[in-house]
Design goal:
This protein is mainly alpha-helical. Helices cover about 70% and strands about 5% of the residues. The chain is built from 13 helices and four strands. The strands form two sheets. The protein has a two-stranded antiparallel sheet. Strands 3-4 form a two-stranded antiparallel sheet. Strand 1 and strand 2 form a beta hairpin. Helix 1 packs across helix 4 and helix 4 crosses helix 7. The chain starts with 7 loop residues before the first helix and ends with a helix.
Length: about 375
Amino acid sequence: MDKYPGREKEFTVYSSLGLAASMFLMASSTSYPQLVVSRFLTGLACAFTTPPAYKYLQSVYTSRSSSRVTPDLASGLYSTAVYGGGALSSLSILMDQTAGWRGTTAIVGGVCGAASLATAVFLDGLRAEGEGEGEGGEKRVVVCAGGEDAVKGVAVKGVVVKEDVLPSPLPSPLLSFPLLYLAVFFRFSAGLALGVWLAPYFKGAFPGESGSYAVWNAAIVGLCGGGSAIAGGKISGWVNERYNVGGSGPDYRLLIPSLGSLLALPPILYALHAPTLPLALLSLSLSYLLCESWFAPVLTSLSSLAGGPSRSGEAVGLFTVVGGLANAAPAAVGWAAENGNGIGECLAVVAGGGYLLSGIFFGVAFFNSGR
């Protein structure tokens, strides 16, 4: 994305169409190899969705003095889509009972296709530098400052929006801040392990209440997770303004995911050992409220480390890759469960360990950021 500025909308539309096509292929699979291929294509399409969508939001909202939506809050709002999707995936348990897995997959593919068409029709595309036109038809160009720092911008419907002041080229954030990506890996590992195995665990621990779990978990993920993500974006923006993130001091935004992960550890462990489903869901709600605020501060911190929105594609792409690698966590839980270990105990180790280690490494990344 960094090499194709102004093409964020097109990449988002094409990746969404690819996702829809892979879902329809999955729904029509007649063999296991075909199912595996469709799953591979689904993951490939998803990998091309996050960087352009995130970069679009950052480009639109960065340095818009007239907008109340800061880049941090925009990141928080963007991440609510993750929790909205998680809520719908929980409800798909009920959908599967009536439509079957093929019908459910086809419905999801249809939603993806509709979303891509809506994006193509209603979303304003970003234009490359110097391509905007004013109200009178005159060309609107971006003025670049001289010296080591250059002000760059994008034109949205003829209005030049300043992106940010870009510092001199920085090294790759993967090389500069490996601890931050390591923390992201552990945090993704915990979330993915819970996302895959929490429903089977509750189904076994509280038989006969799978329908109740599906509905309540959808509400917890959507409301508590989404609310936490928005709050994380709001707090991250306040911290950014208060402590002048981007200066020579430490990035205080990283304290948000560090403290959130550590504080969420006791509730999630209790949820995996609660004697009743209501107590487990209540504890799970508290865990989501505490820890799901991590997306916005981490994404905006990575964007800052990369040098601003115009260089954030690499940082967000690596963020997505790390999330893909974290899929080893639910696979590890499945392997351990097949070898005679209880799902609850396996989740306590993998998810609990992920929360603990991510909290530690986010904290270490915070202290390292000021050096």
